[in-house]
């Protein structure tokens, strides 16, 4: 009876019964069909559109298929061994073609009984957007990629759509899926209830009767009973806006929308933290996280904002407790089952936070360049670079992300890495909220406004007013018996600068040096011994007063070491503390190999630590640094000599901070500390809950620092957050991969372009222009606009030609007669009395004739016709008066050929004297009246204009542009006579023309600024594209080629590494040799390979230069330093660390950091080699990486255990 299910059935004969089985859906019931369908031999077998679901296959065939016929399972190479038992395999070429099946476009959904919840039926539903995948879509609706790529993503993935970039295409807007249907409560309301004939009428009829022309603000409907069809009555608010006249309703809607968006333009909202937050516990009855202490106001405000899922920028003083905000966000995301990413600028800081958060929350993971711990956790701690690559590579983690916490945001000022922060902020999708934690910065609002604008969401700015533990700043002059016990208070806890303290310090220092000279004769004591004695006396003094722990900031690593070594006689720890230090030190070093435990640096530090002294800078081995940090936070290190890096975010407050000096070397030269740096370091003083005030001491060794310097440093404004945005090849290639994102979008959204928020001004100007009366250009006035342009050009040409030249300035000397044009004077003659010596803003004091009564310039407003070209000189109508004024270059419209003999001093003195009230009415002095008469005589003699100096003949200016400008001037002056509009009687009325034109010019300027053409980096972008095209990373259409795909994998020096890869430079080398060669990319302090690298670098450098990038080839090559190649080579060949340290004068810590970064480079090259398909090179890099990953260089951080 079921013969219909088999495939090869003979056609039904006359004896066959027409009968078939129909399967009903997925419920498994069958129905018998006996009525034949005409024209179809057999009816359909199933109600499912896609036929029956597959049945269970026979297990035997499955096993056979998997184990006997599967080419992947059977080894291909040693055939004979594999096929002794199995029959010979047929070659199946097609099996090599692999194509992933197209996604199912339907799924099953369950129908349940609404009351009991029992399964009733399955129905088939069609799915939307099944074609989306990580390779073709930016949408969050796309399918997840393979699990292996879920964490870091893949460099062929598209990123998710960055927030604030919703420039949707028309098709997307039309095709809004059912998931996001919008209900418009204004217009799309259903009017008639089902079953009724008439319904509500929601049209706005009620305006005219109630409140004419006032569209209501709040709509309150009063529906009277019994009347089915009543226009609702409005209670509109009184101050509702007037409706503008318009031709169509659509325009009206648009303008209304526009107004609303204009008004709400402020994205950054400062939160007031002065008033206490009383209803905190009412608003958050069961918080996600509870602390053992009462929160400060700013913390409560931040928590409230987080509960509302808003983004916040917390700019708080050091040790104010910013971490509370981060902790609450992590707790919230654990409550919501989402994820948080915490990024920090420095790896050491990431490790510390990992330990802290791990103790608090447990479910925490760490991702840095070389470590990956529990990446599935709800809170991930990582460096910003890793987050950037996750965003570019479309990692699946981003889907579940609720918060991203940026710690130490003021690091965005870092020239090298600041750009990474901006990229991450721009690339974050819309559903992620942002938490920014930073030290106090002056322009937090401006910065938040920028983020709010690019993300199109509000950012709440919360900042603290003062430090929880106030600081006192002292000067310490040093070691004469009198002053070794006293410090001079310079800035008290309330922030007053005490000059008295400064002067007493100066006196004490003077007295000391004079005594010194007497007692020692003229012999000069060596610097080092005085240094040492200052430190000894100071530290004795501090430990007596129980002011330890002390952090001493020294701005040179060698000085740090020397200072610590010189304290060999000092012992600051008790025997119990010594035992604790010893056991902790030994326990921490158990993970090192025997030989590494005997490194000189470790032995030296062990000796110092036992006496409570330590050193912390980048030259110290990482494991030692961590030991020192841990001992310091336990209070066992009493004196720590540190460089500036210790203050960057390492949360280790002390009681006292000492500055060895206030000058530091910043890579180019010595300079004083900036206020931001000083505050960051001084902020380490004062531990919350332990000290009432923190002490900051500045040592005055050579002499007391200048008061102005100290004042600027202590009370100056901290550094502004400034954009360090720059284009990198990686960024350009990553964005070119994805058609939907453009590099110009990224550039336009960068903080450096945040001045572009000129939309308001543009709309203002447009309104002003439309409000102005239109220019009448009929009849005689038809050439008014060309006339205007001629006149403006004439003014410009005249100024530039003469006044900016040296000889022109020489001619402007005392006694020269000039023509003055400014707000007060129109073509008035004047004579120069004095010329200022300031070459930047040069001013000229001149005596100018004017009407009586207009000396102050309050008289007639002759700005009325500024666009008229008028050469005739000013001749007063009434009695002639004079005024003495300072003129700028632009006020002088012409230099005449005349000079007058004047006595400038007398004129100026006399004029100034008569400005005083009691000499107001005195007659002018002889010198003045003579000069005024002369000027008047000149004006009357040449009423239509006076001869001016000719730049070419008189001033001897022979440069091409001046001669050209001069000829152009003549042409313009000639052409003015031919205009008709001058003769029109209406001419004088066209005053508004000038204003109108200037507004129009400003508008054009702003419109240009908003366009992509004005991006500051646009030219460089085109240059870099040119470089990429000529190296064949992208083709002429901008599509990324194989080389470009490889370069995307590499985070720094991408061009050089890719070129080396494609030129096969690394293939002939042994693994350890290639590791040594690549060390030049990571070492910041000279075999056959080196020359190759240099030549490739030289080639790229020259190419960049040709394409217009302003960096010379020498600079480009110079950034690769080959100082550590030998060290790395020996290390990769297995030499112990102790011997390697002997090979170089570079400090141990620097070597370790270099090798760690080298490991990251090797990993990237390995990835790249895989993309190219060079498996040999890939395995070689793997070997090199294994060779250097050993011993002390790769001991796991103490914080992660």
TrEMBL record:
Compartment(s) where it occurs, according to its Swiss-Prot or TrEMBL record: Cytoplasm
| Reaction catalysed by this enzyme | ATP + H2O = ADP + phosphate + H(+)
One Gene Ontology term of the biological-process aspect is: nuclear-transcribed mRNA catabolic process, 3'-5' exonucleolytic nonsense-mediated decay
Region Disordered: start and end of each range? Answer: 137-156
Keywords from the UniProt entry: ATP-binding, Cytoplasm, Helicase, Hydrolase, Nucleotide-binding, RNA-binding
Q: Where's the Helicase ATP-binding domain?
A: 303-459
Q: What is its main location?
A: cytoplasm
> GO MF annotations for this entry?
ATP binding; hydrolase activity; RNA binding; RNA helicase activity
Give all residue intervals belonging to the Helicase C-terminal domain: 571-736
Q: What is this protein called?
A: SKI2 subunit of superkiller complex
From which source organism is this entry?
Oreochromis niloticus (Nile tilapia)
Lineage of the species this protein comes from:
Eukaryota, Metazoa, Chordata, Craniata, Vertebrata
Name the gene that codes for it: SKIC2
